[in-house]
Amino acid sequence: MTGAETAALYYSGLDLDRAGGRRPDPAWIRAQQESQDLRVIPLWRDECLVCAGQPVVLAGDRLSPLPCGQRETVFLGLSAAGPVFAADLSGLEKGTAQDLAGADDCADVRSLIGAVSRAEAGLLAYARGLLHWQRGQRFCGGCGGRCEPRDGGHLRVCADCGALHFPKIEPAIIVLVELPGEPRRCLLGRHQGADPGRFSTLAGFVEVGESLEDAVRREVAEEAGVDVGTVQYQGSQAWPFPAGLMIGFRGVANSPDIAVDGAELADARWFTAAELRARIADRAAVPPYRPDSIGRALIETWLADAAG
Known about the structure:
The protein is an alpha+beta fold. 25% of the residues lie in helices and 31% in strands. It has 7 helices and 16 strands.
């Protein structure tokens, strides 16, 4: 994948100054909260508050009537237009949260793809991921003490033992495996519970003590029974649903043999470039990727190479 292709991925390449060196200063955070240019993105239990199908973005004074303790507000960064925060309204009833935000519904970020720009989708996903972590890190995993937010919401500190808790990232690999020779073929699998025609690239979480390349070979071997040799990095994508980082690879199979595990995968097949193009072009067929996933970029890049 080229740099341009990586930059075009959803949820990545966010044009925002996160101000990591300034957000530990409480006085600076307060000044941003009092800025006339402040924008606040409200969410409710991991969902965007929307009006007429578009995400709601509020001026800061719209949140001032909310009683203390019924919201979590975090600093996202500085945009060209001013500071941007996110507010978690999960402590309210859904209707109350919608009324406060001037919204008529709630929606998952991924359901808004096509209705919002890549930049908007990235900002919404970032807000969702950080607020999700905030709700899950209210107490210390070491002593059980209450954790207080610091650094504009990018750190929580245990009030009892002083332990520092930072947002956790869960790295996962996603890989397009190709088979040498002609015609060029790539491996796609159908996961258990997926629609009958839903074949996609293989993916899985990286385990403790494992390199990214080792994770690629293990996941493909475990799920599809395919032995992978060469592994080459292609690009990465933020995937805050709730805390993922998708790391894309292309791998080369040592053998065409497939032995599906029957647990993660229900089926796996080798597809030629022609078969894959026909499947993508067929409006009645299930596409082999989500439109916002790096899996799409892996497949489209492979198809472009196969045509060259």
